[in-house]
Amino acid sequence: RRHFNMAFAEPNGVEMKPAAGPSGPPPRSPLRATRAARSGAYRWLLTRAAVVNLLLVAGMIAVVWCSIWLLLAQQRREFEQQAGRDSGNLAQAAAESIGQTIAGVDDAMRFMRAVYNSDPKHFDIGAWASRVNRTHGVALEFAIIDRNGILAASSLAPTTAPINPTTAPINFSDQDFFKAQAGDDADRLFISRPIFGRTSGRW
Question: Is residue 134 helix, strand or coil?
């Protein structure tokens, strides 16, 4: 075989070697590489191993979400139970406070009745009411009503009455609290619905 080498020389005597061409197969285009990658991914998804892996991942996600849901449900039940206990405690405390207030007013009214019956002519209901510390700020008015429903005495000043007591007596015979006491011989406390005071001018 013959071997032939070719070289060139520049005018200044320097030898020039031929440039080496690219070695190996030519590079593929990016579009063909993307298509090949997609085709390989699709083929992998159709394999049994891929299906098993996907099912395992889905199962793990379901377990995580179920755990979160159970935790939130448990916390909600605990919050509801705690709120129920707190509400029950508050309701019990309010009931006890209201019961003590009502009992204090009832005791004060019984004591006032006893003092009034001992000396009706010299009984000063205004002075007596100001000395009752147990009902201070609780009972707006103490009053004495006769058997006909007419106001006989009040712990409030007469000037606070919307109707002048010197010209027209204040009649409570149409009120529920008077009807309940007039038609019942039992000595017990009666609590009526809120009414507008005819002597106080307030609810």
Answer: coil
20-30 pLDDT, tens digit each: 445 555 555 55
Alpha-carbon dihedral sign for residues 126, 105, 120, 199: positive
Any alpha helices (H) in the chain, and if so which ranges?
30-45, 48-118, 125-131, 176-182
The beta strands (E) that lie in the chain are given as 8-9, 15-16, 143-145, 151-154
Query: DSSP label at 5?
Result: -
Residue where the block lists tokens 């009992």: 103
- Extract the tokens encoding 26: 């030519």
Give 159-172 pLDDT, tens digit per residue.
344 445 455 788 88
Residue type, 11: P
Q: What is the pTM of this model?
A: 0.50
Identity of the amino acid at 158:
P
The C-alpha atoms of residue 203 and residue 197 are separated, in whole angstroms, by 6
Lowest pLDDT segment from 59-63, 132-136, 198-202: 132-136
Please, are residues 107 and 139 in contact by the beta-carbon 8 Å criterion? Answer: no
Alpha-carbon Rg for the chain, nearest whole angstrom, is: 50
| Contact in structure between 153 and 125 (CB atoms under 8 Å) | yes
